[in-house]
Amino acid sequence: MKKQLLAVFLGLCAAVMTARAAELSTVKSLNLAVAKQIAAAAEAEGIKNKWTLVISIVDAGGNLIYLQRADNTQIASIDVAVAKAKSAVGFKRPTKAFEDMVAGGRTAVVKLPIAMPIEGGMPLMIGDVCIGAIGVSGATSAQDGVVAKAGVDEFVKIAAGSK
Questions:
Q1: To 5 degrees, how large is the angle CA 124–CA 130–CA 136?
Q2: From CA 79, how far away is CA 82, in angstroms rounded?
Q3: Given CA atoms 23, 64, 139, 158 in this order, what sign does their dihedral have?
Q4: pTM for this one?
Q5: pLDDT tens sequence for the chain (163 residues)
Q6: In Å, how far from its chain's centre is CA 98?
């Protein structure tokens, strides 16, 4: 009798746990291998144009996953590239949006925490979910944006293949 009650109890527990697990969302996340692929595509665009750059990739929480600095790229671009990526992931929009706001006279944007009003940071989106971002610095802001876009384009290809 005790064994039967225990079996029923364990069965009920398993059913409740299964039902609760179904309530959890499934979220895709970046890993180092994908970050390297994104950075490689961005790097190829920079090399093609003879731009020396820093490329950073952050996860959904703004934590650095990958960073590379081309030879002879100014040291300050390390912090700028990371800040652009953190801004893009934090606000789920390209940093160019903030640059455009400031250029349009909305200077209050510079007071937003982590907002980087310089082109070159772009979120990595799957649908409406931001799973990370790329930040690029070292050339002009428009050139940084071109390189970041190359990384995003590679990510879109990777994400399309993983669905």
A1: 35
A2: 5
A3: negative
A4: 0.84
A5: 677 766 666 666 565 556 666 678 787 899 999 999 999 999 999 999 999 999 999 999 999 999 999 999 999 999 999 999 999 999 999 999 999 999 999 999 989 999 999 999 999 999 999 999 999 999 999 999 999 999 999 999 999 986 4
A6: 17
The amino acid that residue 117 corresponds to is P
Structure tokens given for 88:
């893009």
Pick the closest to residue 37 from 158, 137, 160, 126 (CA basis): 158
Domains of the chain in start order, with CATH, are 32-161 (3.30.450.150)
Start-to-end Cα distance in the chain: 49
